């Protein structure tokens, strides 16, 4: 087995000290630009690969970010991963990815694993962690950001980044109202408690502003035990007939996947969209532009 090239090997080949090579490889200004360039070129020619563990011990940083997602099947989560990866690559950081499968205890365990691995930061998408995890989170001394936190409890130790669920839902319902609809249904998801509550509340508020009181059977929910994104399309397809029986002429869906399921139901029932029924989703996932009609 071939031995890895060391800094000492480069120093001997260049006829300089170990310290000089170490500083040159780190672009230390104590070494002239000309010598730095020569040593870096020599290191590349010799096939030198820096030891990331040794570098992290010296600098007290690992140049790694831990990302926890609910599932890789959710198109929205896929866009989050893509965005995080673009930034980490640009900043020369490594990315660790783990899936929690919508299990808050698993989510907490992954965060603790990332902490033990000394990552420099942690990002959690669609977190489900609740108050019972707060004591354990207080022991995590790593900057942590939650994206679209789904639990109702607000975790004081962490930073959060959220979609404006209220504004988005209002815009969707107001658009349907502008088309002349008065009987507008809501197709929600009980497995996303916080964002679903906000979007449902904004749906009700937008209708109230228009002087409309939604009937109970205008609102249908995908069950809370359906935790996986792959269940959204079948849920939308299954629940739409109930809204049609309630007499709605338009449907606001919690997300685009439920809306796609609703479109599939319309196709099977020979209901023309948007001529006979208007459907609007939320998230604007890439797949939404490829269904017919597009969302």
Please explain how this structure is put together.
The chain is an alpha/beta fold and 295 residues long. It folds into three domains: 7-50, 434 Repressor (Amino-terminal Domain) (Orthogonal Bundle); 59-161, Response regulator (Rossmann fold); 165-289, 3-Layer(aba) Sandwich (Rossmann fold), CATH 3.40.50.2300. 44% of the residues lie in helices and 14% in strands. The protein is built from eleven helices and nine strands. Strands 2-1-3-4-5 form a five-stranded parallel β-sheet, with helices on both faces. Strands 7-6-8-9 form a four-stranded parallel β-sheet, sandwiched between helices. Strand 8 (250-253), helix 11 and strand 9 form a beta-alpha-beta unit. Helix 1 packs across helix 3, helix 8 (165-178) runs parallel beside helix 9 (193-209) and helix 10 (232-245) crosses helix 11 (256-268). The chain is elongated. The mean pLDDT is 87.
Q: What are the low-pLDDT stretches, counting only 5+ consecutive residues below 50?
A: none
What would you give as the CATH superfamily of the largest domain? Response regulator
Using the 3D structure, state the CATH architecture of the largest domain.
3-Layer(aba) Sandwich
Q: Strand count, sense and closure of the main sheet?
A: 5 strands, parallel
Q: Can you identify the CATH class of the largest domain?
A: Alpha Beta
Q: Termini, distance in Å?
A: 57 Å
Strand numbers in spatial order across the main sheet: 2-1-3-4-5
Number of strands: 9
Structural class given helices, strands, pairing? alpha/beta
- CATH topology title of the largest domain: Rossmann fold
Portion in beta strands: 5-15%
Q: Tell me, what's the shape? A: elongated
What Rg, in angstroms, do the CA atoms define?
26 Å
Overall mean pLDDT score? 87
| Individual helix count | 11
Binned, the helix content reads 40-55%
The ordered H/E elements are HHHHEHEHEHEEHEHEHEHE
Indicate how many domains the architecture comprises. 3
């Amino acid at each position: 087995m071939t031995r890895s090239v060391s800094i000492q090997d480069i120093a001997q080949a260049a006829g300089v000290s170990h310290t000089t090579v170490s500083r040159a490889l780190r672009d230390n200004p104590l070494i002239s630009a000309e010598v730095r360039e020569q040593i870096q070129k020599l290191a590349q020619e010799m096939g030198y690969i820096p030891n990331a563990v040794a570098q992290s011990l010296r600098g007290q940083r690992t140049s790694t970010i831990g990302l926890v997602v609910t599932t890789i099947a959710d198109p929205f989560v896929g866009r989050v991963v893509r965005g995080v990866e673009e930034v980490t690559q640009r900043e020369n950081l490594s990315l660790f990815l783990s899936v929690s499968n919508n299990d808050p205890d698993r989510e907490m365990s992954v965060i603790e694993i990332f902490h033990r691995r000394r990552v420099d930061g942690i990002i959690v998408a669609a977190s489900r962690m609740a108050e019972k995890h707060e004591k354990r989170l207080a022991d995590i001394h790593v900057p942590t950001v939650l994206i679209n936190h789904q639990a109702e409890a607000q975790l004081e130790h962490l930073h959060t980044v959220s979609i404006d669920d209220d504004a988005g839902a209002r815009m969707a319902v107001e658009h349907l109202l502008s088309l002349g609809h008065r009987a507008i249904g809501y197709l929600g998801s009980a497995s996303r408690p916080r964002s679903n509550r906000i979007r449902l509340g904004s749906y009700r508020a937008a209708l109230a502003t228009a002087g409309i009181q939604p009937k109970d059977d205008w609102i249908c929910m995908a069950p809370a035990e359906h935790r996986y994104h792959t269940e959204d399309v079948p849920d939308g397809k299954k629940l739409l007939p109930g809204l049609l029986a309630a007499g709605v002429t338009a449907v606001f869906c919690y997300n685009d996947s439920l809306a796609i399921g609703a479109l599939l139901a319309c196709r099977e029932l020979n209901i023309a969209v948007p001529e006979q029924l208007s459907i609007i989703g939320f998230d604007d996932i890439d797949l939404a532009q490829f269904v017919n009609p597009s969302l």
